[in-house]
Amino acid sequence: MRAYELARWGLEHLNAKELPDPPEPEGCDVVVRVRAVSLNYRDTLVCAGSYNPKYPLPLVPCSDGAGDVIAIGPDVKRFRIGDRVMPIFSQSWLDGDPDEQTLRSSLGGPLHGTLREIMTVPEQALVRVPDSLGYAEAATLPCAALTAWSALVTYGLSTLAGASVLVLGTGGVSIFALQIAKAGGAQVIVTSGDHEKLERVKKMGADHVIHYREQPEWHRTVRELTSGRGVDLVIEVGGAGSLERSIKSVRPGGVVSLIGILGGKAGAIDLTPVLMRNVRIQGILVGHRAGFEAMCRAIEQNKIRPVIDQSYAFEEAPTAIEELSRGAHFGKLVIELP
Ligand SMILES: NC(=O)c1ccc[n+]([C@@H]2O[C@H](COP(=O)([O-])OP(=O)(O)OC[C@H]3O[C@@H](n4cnc5c(N)ncnc54)[C@H](OP(=O)(O)O)[C@@H]3O)[C@@H](O)[C@H]2O)c1
What is the pLDDT of residue 156? Predict the structure, then answer.
């Protein structure tokens, strides 16, 4: 089988190789033929060696994928050959709080990821693809969509109906957050640094949009748009670059779901409004399998279709990863396998 391996850190060291097919599955193992892989910002950092340079090399990168079950071990109960499945990001996080072991069980570093033709996965770490989605669409769910779901639902608000949500940016996580929040009945404000992308989110149902470069004091606009109250929840992907404004955008008692650090991971931030306004800052690490399965039901019932900006062939994987790091995309970039 073909697989991409990073022999050393740096995208220039990502090469396709011929590797032996996995052996016949034992116990509860499931062999999956990967049909599509989707890219996350994390993959660009992992390839560069800046996510965690202690991850073991060589490493097959990428966390997200979808494919077909082609063989099962003798003790597998949950799946049959021919089922369409997606591996979960944290392979041992099934429900409840994560633990240290869970945090070390993520695909695409430290565990080998999805950028290969065939992979073996324990049955507990697979989720069935919603019937309404194709492989490329399904490949976008395990990391980006589940992160948005965890932020809004699992660790977010008791109800989305009537709530107001501020979504920063128009990347993979943010577009899913828009779709899930609208499906739940929330009012959604989206920020972007690009007018064209703001037009696109309006067509998708965003109630208000803000150009964050033209309105650098965007937290003031958010407060105006919510009659001075502030939003109930912020999808915070900017990190240190935007956290202070996100805290000022949220209502007293509201939630800032801290997901990304696109604008920096460290900085001096005035924490006074967090306590004075009883704000909850909730760190999000993708999510557990139970949340993933609940999200898949919501995606089917609400007919949510993942937004794929562009699809690439397996041979073009390094180009696709480079494109993601440019940040010009809207929604998801996907790699499709034969
Ligand atoms: N904690 C987790 O479990 C988890 C899971 C997934 C992702 N993440 C993190 O979340 C972030 C987004 O991930 P992604 O995969 O959705 O990335 P992505 O698809 O590459 O999207 C990034 C988008 O964010 C916007 N952006 C860029 N810099 C920004 C800034 N300084 N402030 C606000 N927005 C900014 C841009 O949108 P515009 O062009 O519209 O401005 C850009 O297209 C990354 O930091 C990633 O590592 C974390």
Answer: 98
Distance 262 CA to ligand 1 centre (A): 6
List, in sequence order, every beta strand (DSSP E) within 241-327. 250-258, 280-283, 308-313
Q: Which domain holds residue 131?
A: 2-143+287-336
Rg (CA), the chain: 20
**Which residue among 52, 141, 262 has the greatest number of ligand 1 atoms within 8 angstroms of its CB, and so is best to mutate?**
262
Q: Residue 275's pLDDT is what?
A: 96
What is the secondary structure of 286-329 as a DSSP string?
S--HHHHHHHHHHHHHTT----EEEEEEGGGHHHHHHHHHHT--
Q: 143 near 40, Cβ under 8 Å?
A: yes
Going by alpha carbons, the residue nearest to atom 10 of ligand 1 is 260
Question: Could you tell me if 250 and 234 are in contact, meaning their C-beta atoms sit under 8 angstroms apart?
Answer: yes
The ligand 1 site (C-beta within 6 Å) comprises 40-42, 143-144, 147, 168-174, 192-194, 197, 237-238, 241-242, 259-263, 284-286, 324, 327
The reply to whether 114 and 65 lie within a common domain is yes
Residue 75 placed within a domain? yes
Rounded Cα–Cα distance for residues 19 and 177 (Å): 37
Ligand 1 atom nearest 330 alpha carbon: 43
- Measured CA to CA, the distance from residue 317 to residue 34 in angstroms comes to 14
User: Does residue 82 share a domain with residue 39?
Assistant: yes
pLDDT averaged per 10 residues, the chain (length 338): 97 96 97 98 96 96 98 98 98 96 94 98 98 98 98 98 97 96 98 97 98 97 98 97 96 97 89 95 98 98 98 98 93 96
Number of domains in the chain: 2
210, 237, 330, 332: which to mutate for ligand 1, most atoms within 8 A of CB?
A: 237
For 215-250, the DSSP string reads -TTHHHHHHHHTTTS-EEEEEE-SGGGTHHHHHHHE
